[in-house]
Design brief:
Layout (H helix, E strand, L loop, with lengths): L9 H6 L7 E4 L3 E5 L7 E7 L7 H7 L1 H18 L5 E3 L14 E6 L10 H4 L2
Antiparallel strand pairs: 1-2, 2-3, 3-5, 4-5
The structure holds guanosine-5'-monophosphate (5GP).
């Protein structure tokens, strides 16, 4: 269950393998999968297996080591799938575009250095 006692988040259901996703990285504490509606040529969601933190501010305050691990996994994915320059987005709050209240980062980039990410990859997440 989520911290608020509501139903498990969609990401918890992916972690539990109740719904399918293309998982691209997994550690003891972190899982990463392709976004179902990609906004960039490379668009991977990186999230904690622990559902208790709703956003990056809560995670930074409650478990900074876990946030560092999430960022390290994001960097590893970017190293494998982009040219090493990438966008790391944590939408925080519904007004900022957050739709899943289970902390996660968006790794967004392109395999080719010549490809530029549009501003819509920031503003429409
Ligand atoms: P947020 O809007 O909360 O920052 O990001 C949530 C992201 O999760 C969105 O980019 C959305 O496309 C993605 N997403 C939502 N449901 C699913 C799903 O069932 N599978 C996958 N792979 N991604 C999802």
């Amino acid at each position: 269950m989520s911290p608020s006692g509501s139903q498990p988040s969609i990401f918890s259901r992916i972690i539990a393998r109740e719904i399918p996703a293309t998982i691209v990285a997994e550690t003891e504490h972190i899982i990463a999968f392709l976004d179902i509606a990609p906004k960039a040529p490379v668009h991977v969601v990186v999230t904690t297996k622990d559902p208790q933190y709703q956003n990056v501010v809560e995670l930074a305050a409650g478990n900074p080591a876990l946030l560092a691990e999430l960022v390290a996994v994001a960097e590893q994915i970017a190293a494998e799938r982009t040219h090493g320059q990438f966008r790391l987005v944590f939408n925080t709050g519904a007004a900022a575009g957050q739709s899943v209240f289970h902390v996660h980062a968006h790794v967004m980039g392109s395999p080719e250095l010549t490809d530029q990410l549009g501003e819509d990859s920031l503003g429409t997440l």
